[in-house]
Amino acid sequence: MKKPLQALVIDDEESVRSLVKIVLTGDGWIVSEAQTADEAIIKLEEETWSLVFCDVVLGGPDGYSVLKEFTQIQPNARFVLMTGQGSAAGALDATSTGAYDYLLKPFSIDDILRISAIVKDQFNNRKQQNLIGERPPPGYQSDLPLIGTSPKFVECLKVVGRVSGTSLPVLITGESGTGKDLVARAIHQRSKRAAKNFVTVNCGAIPTELIESELFGHARGSFTGADRERMGLWEEAAGGTLFLDEITETNSLFQVKLLRALQDGEIRRVGSNRSIKVDVRVIAASNRNIETEVETGNFRQDLLYRLNAVTVELPPLRERKEDIALLADHFIRKAARSGTSSRTIADTTIEILTNYGWPGNIRELENAVLHAVSLSDDIIYPEHLPSRIRLGLGLPSIIEADKDSSDPLADISNTNQSWLSLAEMEAKYVTRVLASTGGNKQAASRILNIDRKTLGRIIQRKYP
Question: Is the predicted pLDDT of residue 273 greater than 60, yes or no?
Fold first, then answer.
């Protein structure tokens, strides 16, 4: 018969300790309690613990101090930080520095049981895989604006924290403007590679015929104008991280060569027969549904498997409504650091921002806030916002208004027989196509046989 596993609950609130202890005891654990960090560290030296629940704020040394002691002395213990004032950035801090999980108070009994079941399985079956890896170098600090408290974003950054210390390739997905580049930088800065280069490659901005040379470099004489040997961005990222943004914009020929580089850990410059070993961690990102791209033959399935050892899916801003006011305040303070006087936001303005659909996500929010700051004095009122936001003309609203229409050319004139202009009819038709694709701009572009920049200009003309 297996010996019951031991758990420790550390919190200065008796009600929290009691709840966690009752649930864990009922699930077969032997549970002890500690009220302070000092008491917990004494218990650390007395017993071997499999699971620890610890509050962040303990009235003296905090939960992170206790976490540091545990990771040094009992690194196999699964450590869960609890907090009543948590955030997505806090989740990233916790999981990237060794915490197994991060719970926002008030949490549920199901949260405790979920963690209990996973940890019991790991210890009873000796499946103690370490997803934390090496810690970032001493003195590490990040000023990346990974702001929010919404559950979806918190869960997302837990994954980011856990994977940051490994060398696993990561695939980041999400709509344009959701912050994929910031998350990629956060992974790099919290890894053992933080002191090395972080190199960004926007695959969609490099012509197809040049991307191989840009990434892998070229030998002298390999093509017209190649008058000297040139190192590519892959080598520039040696020892660090290479961020391949918009990876789905690459063609199949380049994807084959990228797959070989990932598999073999080496590259060949264009026009050269010599292979070069390069130690680099690859993070890729796309705003498209990559599985759909695989199904349509636009992206190699074997490359997808190689890139997505871990997938981080960023939620759109419309699914993080509780974060909108926090982000708006951040952008106001950012503007103030650039020389603009401080602003506050009226409650009516916050309500409009919260109800808007944000097709451009965080990038669009920042643009809207800067627009409002430039037009306001001390307080930002609704009239200072761009018209499309005041009128609630976000893409989800457009889709909702038009999704039931079966005739894309219906209503081309109004009840007074005043005909629409060609530009107005174009905008209406584009809106209907967007509605039919559920707001997928890439799919709409294909139906309309136009590129995404042209589609963006049409939308902007209708909703400036």
Answer: yes
